[in-house]
Amino acid sequence: MSEVGSYLQRRSFITQCSAIGACTAITASLPAAETGRSHLPSVDDFRSLIGTHFRVERESGSPLALELTEVTQSNYEMPSQFRPQFSMVFAVSVHERLPQDVYTLHHPRIGSLQLLLVPIDLPARHNNLQAVLG
């Protein structure tokens, strides 16, 4: 299988299968008092943040800014008791590399949350990270 074909299969797998862990991480880290709301941010909440920056805390020290560049809702039909699945893509500075991990992100409008961020570019770049929620 070619490197590009492998990349596309990996991205599809991540989009379809990582929602449970990411949603659990957000649920545990979003106190209603901190965000001013009693529910998790929705796809529309995140769409309104496209083009804005999230601050990421890193163990290595200085925080890093990630720009939210894309929010895509899944076409997969979910039972009515579940929230719609969607993914978000964050752009990373060309001089930075973030490995796959759970990171704490901060945004002034939605507060702090933890997301599983996965590099979705070819290994030579890794300038885009994806989080999947559902």
SSE diagram, text form:
Blueprint: H1 3-17, H2 19-29, H3 32-35, H4 43-47, E1 53-58, E2 61-73, E3 86-91, E4 101-107, E5 111-119, E6 128-133
Antiparallel strand pairs: 1-2, 1-4, 2-3, 3-6, 4-5, 5-6
Could you walk me through the main structural features you see in this protein, from its secondary elements to its overall organization?
This protein has 134 residues and is α+β, with helices and mostly antiparallel strands. The chain has helices spanning 3-17, 19-29, 32-35, 43-47; strands at 53-58, 61-73, 86-91, 101-107, 111-119, 128-133. A hairpin with a 2-residue loop joins strand 1 and strand 2. The longest helix is centred in the first third of the chain and has 15 residues, at 3-17. The model is unreliable at 16-38 (pLDDT under 50). Strands 1-2-3-6-5-4 form a 6-stranded antiparallel barrel. The protein contains 4 helices and 6 strands, in the order ααααββββββ.
| Helix-strand sequence | HHHHEEEEEE
The biggest beta sheet reads:
6 strands, antiparallel, barrel
Distance linking N and C termini: 30 Å
What would the principal axes of the Cα set say about the shape? globular
> Structural class of the helix and strand makeup?
alpha+beta
Order of strands, widest sheet: 1-2-3-6-5-4
Query: Could you report the average pLDDT, rounded to the nearest whole number?
Result: 76
Number of strands: 6
Q: Indicate the low-confidence ranges by residue numbers.
A: 16-38
Q: How many helices?
A: 4
Radius of gyration based on Cα positions: 15 Å
The amount of beta strand, in percent, is 35-45%
